């Protein structure tokens, strides 16, 4: 497995873990981010979607799907802008920025590995 694929695989596992947390025990994750407790089903649906995205990441890594790995890098770069906007609009606690910083640096990691491997010219 290439270094870029490893970075995507690791994020796939990270997303799978968080997706399962949102599906099975959502308030544990929400409370750690300063987000209010909820009993609504939407958060569990988000967990299913995050778990599905995790499968795509893991498969992209396993099969070295470069075009998908490139897309994951740019998607993870963009998350910080959306989460920052949510904080500025006072829709969520500023602690959610932690996740977007993790995603940003993960996207940077994947991008740099792809570039080093010659997938960006």
Task: Characterize the structure shown.
By secondary structure, this protein is an all-alpha fold. It has one domain. Helix 1 crosses helix 2, helix 1 runs antiparallel to helix 3 and helix 1 runs antiparallel to helix 5.
Describe what is shown at a glance.
With 121 residues, this protein is mostly helical. 77% of the residues lie in helices and 0% in strands.
Helix % is over 70%
Taking the alpha carbons of the first and last residues, their distance comes to 21 Å
**Tally of domains:** 1
Query: Helix segment count?
Result: 5
Q: What proportion of the residues form beta strands (DSSP E)?
A: under 5%
The structure class reads mainly alpha
What is the average per-residue confidence, as pLDDT, rounded to a whole number? 95
Largest sheet: none
Q: Provide the succession of SSEs.
A: HHHHH
Low-confidence sequence ranges: none
Morphology: globular
Number of strands: 0
Q: What features would you highlight for this structure?
A:
mainly alpha, globular, 121 residues
Summarize the helices and strands and which ones pair or pack.
Blueprint: H1 3-24, H2 26-32, H3 42-62, H4 66-88, H5 97-116
